[in-house]
Amino acid sequence: MITRRRTESIIKVWRDSIPTQTTMTRAAKNNSRPFCKRKQTSDRRSGTSVKNGAPLFFILCFFGAAVPFSPGKQFHNTACCDKIMLMDMNEITRNAEREYIRWSEQIREGDEYYEEFRALVDNPEELTDSFYCHLTFGTSGMRGLLGPGPNRINGIVIRRASAGLANYMNHRFRSPSAVISYDSRAGSAYYARETARVLNGSGIRTWIFRELTPVSCLSYAIRTLKCDMGVMITASHNPKIYNGYKVYNSEGYQIVGEEPESILNEIEKIDFFDAIPYNDDGVLTVDPEIGKDFVRSITALSTRIEPDRLNQLKTIYTPLNGAGRKYVRQVFQSIGYKNFEIVRTQEYPDENFPTCPQPNPEKILAFNEAFRRADIAGGDLLIATDPDSDRVGAALYHEGMRTLLTGNQLGVLLLDYLCHIRPPRPGQIVAKSIVTSPLGERIAERYGMKVVNTLTGFKYIGDLIRRLREEGRPEDFYFGFEESNGYLLSPFISEKDGVSSAMLIVEMAAFHKSYGKDPVDRLNELYEEYGICVDKIRNYYFQGVRGRIAMEKIMEYFRGEIGDSIGGRRILRKIDYMEDTGLPRADVVQFWLENGSTLAIRPSGTESKMKIYSFETEDFTSVEREIIRIIEKYR
């Protein structure tokens, strides 16, 4: 154990070295809940209260707010803040110190991250960031850096979240059940087992996969086992220093609506060091037949290209050291596809992702090893899935140049191919997010389909599928996609699926190759047929609280001060999704400009950055310059 006296003495030495300023040393990490001003709230344990108007720090947030720490106290959740206030940095530091000291009385040698915990006393900036707040349990669970402290992913945080989830399930369901899976990240298998033990110890019938699986297989298992909820331990495409905790409902998509807040309320009733029910006996193992059924269900979705035609295409596939290898390989073999290779350096699970520090198939750097293999062995197409295999990307050599297909371009190509091979019925539905290419909408309308736009996040497409099931018409769903490389070609699950999408990408590319074209050639034909629509995503990064203030001011400008034009282009229409639009409120503003271009602006929900989405029908230089001018004005 680290003694309280030693901890306090060391902290006292470095406390004075931290400058007094109204700014944070680091931005609130992914899904962190900053300190919030709130109405008077009684503390259940001590009877103390936080008075209305107390000078507590908070920042603009998207899925929740942050909870300040004080020894022995637990605070309740507050709604998202809509104005930014600042508190002296010393108060933030003192809050972190007090919580660190409280943890030091519980952490013992041999515990997870014990050495890292001890080392924090020599790193005041890291200590403050690890302890000044705790990770939020937001609309899709938690995500954060691995390490000690309440603002990190570790066993203490995972067990507390699982205990809160268990309490919620026991209150809501008569005989609750859950299934748990995980990806290849550091700690994923351990945290999945800890989650299973806590749920099982709370009387919840609990299954766990015996090996890592794609998140889409978890979604399939939830519905197959008729479970009430599911948990996936993953940080998706983030770098190796991250992990996370995603929660799924009985329909197999990430929780939406009031459910995240209800679960969060249960979590916040639990102290990090409360005794938590915990039992390994009775945890069930998912039958391997479910994985086989999952593969068979995907194979049934094949467009059935003749094997000889299909195998004219050479594919280099990489699972990026994640969960996709087994399932993508089996699906390829099931449809008779043999002409593929798996990148050896990225074939098997590896928590360090040694050849791909950021395993994100949206980025061309993730394809470096695949391109190297293609240079040696040849290859018409490169495919990559991220560690939990819900996202898939594609790249190729086009006219000798390394070319990455954007998430929008790939989605449009898949939709176009499906419409040719499997013509839709009039009135069937194509679902896409509001920041996804309008080119897909033009194609869908050409075939008489209805387009449903949702907020960003595939869970909203999953929620649409739920409504269709309830109305007895799930077959009306034709295709769903989002700009961040998520696709779904059947409502047999309710989550984006990199496995079935990899199959469809191969079939699409093989189809076009049989006509002497590659996917880029077909994309250019679509531009000629439907009009040019160049999609771009621009990221503008900010730091700390001042950056959050700047982002809020930028959003206020685009909401009310932008005028009737931008960059010399007349604004024909504007939608502010914080207003009543028929969709859940979201911090997004979207513009339709003359000549058919569109523009969307939103702050990221997980990083301190602005995301600018544009769909351009002609030169966009003047608009881009105007956006940069506005951002620099407030930066």
UniProtKB/TrEMBL annotation:
Membrane-spanning residues where?
54-71
Mind telling me which CDD domains this protein's record contains? PGM2 (cd05799)
What's in the keyword line of the UniProt record? Isomerase, Magnesium, Membrane, Metal-binding, Phosphoprotein, Transmembrane, Transmembrane helix
Its cofactor is: Mg(2+)
Stored PROSITE patterns: PGM_PMM
User: Which terms under GO biological process does the entry name?
Assistant: carbohydrate metabolic process; purine ribonucleoside salvage
User: Which residue stretches belong to region Disordered?
Assistant: 25-49
PANTHER family in UniProt: PHOSPHOGLUCOMUTASE 2B-RELATED, PHOSPHOMANNOMUTASE 45A
Name of the protein this chain belongs to: Phosphoglucomutase
